[in-house]
Structure formats: structure tokens, C-alpha cells
User: Fold Malate dehydrogenase from Solirubrum puertoriconensis.
Amino acid sequence: MKVTVVGAGNVGATCADVLATREIANEIVLVDIKEGIAEGKALDIWQKAPIIGYDSRTIGVTNDYSRTADSDVVVITSGLPRKPGMSRDDLISVNAGIVKSVTEQVVKYSPNAIIIVVSNPLDVMTYQAHLTSGMDRMKVFGMAGILDTARYRAFLAEALNVSPKDIQAVLMGGHGDTMVPLPRYTTVGGIPVTELIEKDKLDAIVQRTAVGGGELVKLMGTSAWYAPGAAAAQMVEAIVRDQRRVFPVCVELKGEYGIDGVYLGAPVILGKNGIERIIELQLNDEEKALLETSRGHVKEVMDALDKMGQAQPASA
Ligand SMILES: NC(=O)C1=CN([C@@H]2O[C@H](COP(=O)(O)OP(=O)(O)OC[C@H]3O[C@@H](n4cnc5c(N)ncnc54)[C@H](O)[C@@H]3O)[C@@H](O)[C@H]2O)C=CC1
Ligand SMILES: O=C([O-])CC(=O)C(=O)O
Assistant:
């Protein structure tokens, strides 16, 4: 299996490192626009192979998409990260152009690849890549839900003093402060979380999760990369190993949840064909209202992209 990661910055390099270390793909191509950075990081990851013990090959290139040809999966992480005081949406004008030009190159050399978008603002960059690619929505989708649920699960594991492995959770909506964690669908070793933690503590964890990305931006001056890189690699693994994992993934909803033409996180089954199925949960009125707020926010940012004239299909 061949996997390309575009953007050899913090998230892209971490993703490539996890892919290699866990031997998720035997050939990993790292691409960046900055001369030498992808080559250097790919070489560094390859030189770690004898120490850790893996045989996935990592190759780095500067803007040479011919080396990415016939990739099975492509992860797009290219673009600016936010700085303290910025929202993800503030990145739209710069990152839309980057995601558009990268997607054109990716599709030209790997027309059958499944594309995973990571660049922010995530839901709208997924829209940008999907439109530019002209591909089926089940093959171009975004990573956010695995990261957001991982934060939620980590906070819960800490509060309950249990293994994060035993916490199962799903959340929906946009990758922003309006995301919709679903405590009703959260279990700890099969036990509903609501039986194990007081409501006010759970509410505080939900709140912290919603602004989880911003917490890290404040601490580090740039956004997170270890968990985001690993989350993208976990999606690649589900696809290349046809695992049929159930994850929240950002995809264009077309009637599901009564929503049409908006890119939002929803639980899906991920396998060799990309999204194999979008799962429709039964939401209660409160959850539906939260999802509607999130939908409205993402739609506003999609409209802003449309106004910029960026969201054009590749052939337009
Ligand atoms: N979806 C999610 O949950 C998350 C999304 N992100 C987003 O991922 C993106 C990357 O974040 P970091 O890796 O921390 O940033 P970074 O600045 O460390 O790396 C970005 C890389 O993209 C490269 N790049 C820029 N234009 C390019 C082009 N046209 N072609 C190829 N490479 C290009 C840059 O040279 C740089 O090396 C940001 O937009 C960030 O907001 C970050 C964390 C989580
Ligand atoms: O917060 C950011 O800008 C990066 C991101 O999406 C996250 O870490 O959730």
C-alpha cells in the first residue's frame, strides 16, 4: 500500500511517523512546498527504522507529485496552523488556496486515491477538497472526530481514573467550538458514563473538549500535532487494512440527519472503499438543536468560501 502525506509540518510528519512505525503502509511519500523539509523528515523517520524495528519506506519530495503517483490514500495536512487569539475559521483564505492546489495535484497523479483532509478550518477544507476533486463524497472526507473524541476520552479517563482504552464515545457536528459531544452515547467498559460521573463534572469535560484545540494553542503558540497526526494515521489504517472501524468523520451530509449539502462530523464505517456507510443515530431534541447550531456555523463558513470564489470544481 502507498500512502502520501502532503504537508511535512508538525501534523504531517507525525502522521507519516505513525504510519511508518506501525507499518500501516509499506511506502509513505511525504510532500512539502518548503525545499528539503519533507526529504529531511522522511530520511529521519527512515533512520529510526533500525532502532524501533520497522520496514515501511518513507520518501520525501519538494512539490514533485509524480512521486506520489498511484497512492491508495492521501492525507492533506498542508496549510497554516492558528496562533493564539485566532479561530480556525481565520485560516480560511490562505488554506483554501493551498488545499485547492494540492488536491488538483493529488487527483492528477492518484485519481483513485481516498483523500483524508486535515487542514483547517476542517469542515470547509473538506468541502474545498471534495469539490476540487470531483470525487464521490465517500472518498473525500475529513479528520476531526477521532481527535475530538480522543480528547473527550482522555479527559474522562483522567476524571474516572480508568484506562482511556475502555472509554467509547462518539461526537458529531463541526470541528469547532460548536462540536456536539454525545454523553448519551458514551460508555466506560460498556457502562453508560452518566452512571459513573456527576452531571456537572461531565458538563465541564464536554465544555473542555469543545475548546480542546484552543487549550493547546494557548499553551504552545501553535496547534497540536501528536494526537492529530495519530488520528489521521488511524483513519488510514482503517482504510488500508479494511478494518470497517466506526469513527466520527467529516463528510458531506446529503439527507442524513435531515441535513443537505453541509460538511459535518457523523459516525461512519471506514473500510477499503473509504466511507462504507454513514450511521444515523437517533438524536433527542436537545442533541438535534446542538447539531443544528453547528450546521448553521459550518454553513456560514462554507458560504464565505463560496464568496471568495475558491470553491470551484477543478474543471471550472
Ligand atoms: N483537523 C484537525 O483536527 C487538525 C487540523 N490541523 C490543521 O492542520 C494544518 C497543519 O498543521 P501543522 O502541521 O501544525 O502546521 P505546520 O505549519 O507545522 O505544517 C504545515 C506544512 O504545510 C506546508 N505547506 C504549505 N503550503 C503547502 C503546499 N501548497 N503544498 C505542500 N505543503 C505546503 C508548510 O510548508 C508546512 O510544512 C493546519 O491547517 C492546522 O490548523 C491541526 C491539528 C488538528
Ligand atoms: O486547534 C487547532 O487549531 C488545531 C485543531 O484543529 C485541533 O487541535 O483541534
